[in-house]
Amino acid sequence: MFEIDAIEIIGFIAAFLTTSAFVPQVYKTWKTKNVEAISLTMYLVMFTGVFLWLLYGIYMNSLSMLIANIITSSLILVLILLKIKYSKKE
Amino acid sequence: MFEIDAIEIIGFIAAFLTTSAFVPQVYKTWKTKNVEAISLTMYLVMFTGVFLWLLYGIYMNSLSMLIANIITSSLILVLILLKIKYSKKE
Fold it and tell me: A66 and A58 in contact (C-beta within 8 Å)?
């Protein structure tokens, strides 16, 4: 189903870079528990968008899009759950 | 070269959602000129990643990836330029 060729390598590098960009935000929020600056609406919109990219990537037989969007949607989900958890306590 | 079918509609919705999520950040930074919380490294990494997704989308004949990544990379470029411009004045 999925094939790895030269263009897929570009996809994997792209996936690594755009996914990595999310990690510091997740780490910072996890550590500080400061969710004030996080917009729940923005992340819900982004989660829906990334989930649709995931469906799109599966249809396009794109392994890099599949992996990138599974990791990115998981990271966004963590941020959404942290936001909900720590907003309740205010 | 590019074809629009049912899966491309999902791509366009995904493109609209993930691109929209960036707009409030650009608007806020543009208005407030407050670039303190913006990580230049993060946005440079993200810009490179999105640029590679753009190349990938062109290769995959994906019109939704082409449009999404042109708009997203432009928005990230605006944030990078604002960061450089207003950091100098501090």
Answer: yes
Are the Cβ atoms of A52 and B20 closer than 8 angstroms?
Answer: no
> What amino acid occupies position B84?
I
Contact criterion met (CB < 8 Å) for B45 and A7: no
Tell whether B14 is within 8 A of chain A (Cβ).
yes
List per-residue pLDDT tens for chain A, 90 residues long: 566 788 999 999 999 999 998 888 888 888 988 888 778 888 999 999 999 999 999 999 999 999 999 999 999 999 999 999 998 655
Across chain B, which has 90 residues, the per-10-residue mean pLDDT values are 81 95 87 84 93 95 95 94 82
ipTM over 0.95: no
Residues 6+ apart with CB under 8 A from B36: none
Tokens of B82: 């604002």
Cβ within 8 Å, pair A21-B60? no
A10 to B59: CB separation less than 8 angstroms, yes or no: yes
Q: Which residues neighbour A54 within 8 Å (Cβ) at sequence distance 6 or greater?
A: A65, A66, A69, A70, A73
B50 touches A at CB < 8 Å: yes
Domains of chain A, each with CATH number or no CATH: 6-88 (1.20.1280.290)
